[in-house]
TrEMBL record:
Organism of derivation: Leptospira adleri
Cited CDD domains: GST_N_4
One Pfam family this sequence matches: GST_C
UniProt-recorded name of the protein: Glutathione S-transferase
Domain GST C-terminal: 78-194
SUPFAM superfamilies, per the entry: GST C-terminal domain-like (SSF47616), Thioredoxin-like (SSF52833)
PANTHER family according to UniProt: GLUTATHIONE S-TRANSFERASE-RELATED, HYPOTHETICAL GLUTATHIONE S-TRANSFERASE LIKE PROTEIN
Domain GST N-terminal: 1-76
Length: 194
């Protein structure tokens, strides 16, 4: 689904790596991930899923990022850098995405999303906490690991660059705002359609 940040990560990596791919749109809003056909591809019923030429399926966006980039400059050959990249991938999935992405979904796509004020407020607090962690880490840095674009940046950029759709502001996060511009200006970088 083109508007999904998790799908955006994969599309971005494929484009940056100049990989040929076929993109198949699956609309979660229409229940297309709950069909028996899709559940054979991913029993968890979620997107994205990378399907290899031999028919092997790899679900989970950050696992797909690792698979696609493990031997490229978007990952690292250095063990400590690899570990730091993985730290940020886990942070993105557990401390960032659940709050930033859900607020975006509720405010932009859910018919009754704005009626969930307590959920929105709780997510806003936790999302801002994640942006505070990112802000502190990015002090004096252009990227998250090794001063170059890696999949840590791609993963965090996916929902950060559209966080305003979920009611977030970067007024108090100048380092995050600068980082977003650094990533956005990277050659071939794409954004989620708004």
């Amino acid at each position: 689904m083109t508007v999904s940040g998790n799908c955006h990560k994969i599309r971005t990596a494929l484009i940056l790596l100049d990989q040929q791919f076929e993109w198949i749109e699956v609309d979660t809003r229409k229940g297309e991930t709950k069909t028996s056909e899709f559940l054979k591809i991913n029993p968890n019923g979620k997107i994205p899923v990378l399907q290899l030429e031999d028919g092997t399926n790899i679900p989970e966006s950050n696992a797909i990022l690792y698979y696609l980039t493990r031997d490229t400059p978007l990952f690292s050959k250095d063990l400590l850098e690899q570990t730091r990249i993985l730290e940020w991938l886990f942070f993105e999935q557990y401390s960032h995405e659940p709050f930033v992405a859900v607020n975006r979904w509720l405010m932009k796509y859910a018919a009754d999303g704005r009626e969930n004020s307590s959920v929105l407020e709780n997510n806003h607090i936790k999302g801002n906490k994640a942006f505070s962690v990112m802000e502190d880490h990015l002090r004096g840095k252009n990227f998250f690991v090794g001063e170059r674009l890696t999949i840590a940046d791609i993963a965090l950029y996916a929902y950060s660059h559209v966080a305003e759709d979920g009611g977030f502001s970067f007024d108090g996060f100048p380092n995050v705002r600068r980082w977003l511009e650094n990533v956005r200006s990277f050659p071939k970088m794409i954004s989620i359609p708004r």
